[in-house]
Design a protein that fits this description.
Structural class: alpha/beta
Mean pLDDT: 94
Largest sheet: 5 strands, parallel
Order of helices and strands: EHEHEHHEHE
Low-confidence stretches: none
Number of strands: 5
Radius of gyration: 14 Å
Number of helices: 5
Length: 126
């Protein structure tokens, strides 16, 4: 699965999450979700949505923990948007990191690999 939509600014992010949940409930396997473009904003640890809204950040993390779905964020899109892990923070001499647990920084090769190894590659938020 490929998610381009930012959380809360486009329906695509929530639709992707609901699709994953429904597919897993129907006993399909989702190996990897690749976030690129504004979709990488899903991987920030610093967002705090209002309590009366679905917390997309924790919902994606729960999908990762409960069903071993890999959550991969595009490293180049993350760097442009200020989302980094500890090793990238050190590399760029930044004082902190903000990549949420459960998410992994990687390149487009992960998206290509997922497309080759899966029956289908579905994009949300294009």
């Amino acid at each position: 699965m490929h998610v381009l939509a930012a959380p809360y600014s486009h329906q695509g992010n929530l639709s992707a999450l609901r699709f994953c949940q429904a597919a897993i409930a129907a006993e399909h396997r989702i190996k990897r979700v690749f976030f690129s473009g504004d979709g990488v904003l899903t991987g920030t640890e610093l967002a705090s949505p209002p309590q009366d809204e679905i917390n997309l950040y924790s919902a994606w993390n729960e999908l990762n923990e409960s069903h071993s779905v890999e959550l991969v964020v595009c490293i180049s899109a993350c760097l442009r948007r200020g989302i980094i892990n500890a090793s990238e923070a050190a590399r760029y001499e930044k004082s902190a990191s903000n990549l949420a647990p459960g998410f992994v920084l990687s390149g487009l090769g992960q998206l290509v690999e997922a497309g080759l190894e899966s029956e289908r590659l579905i994009t949300f938020g294009a």
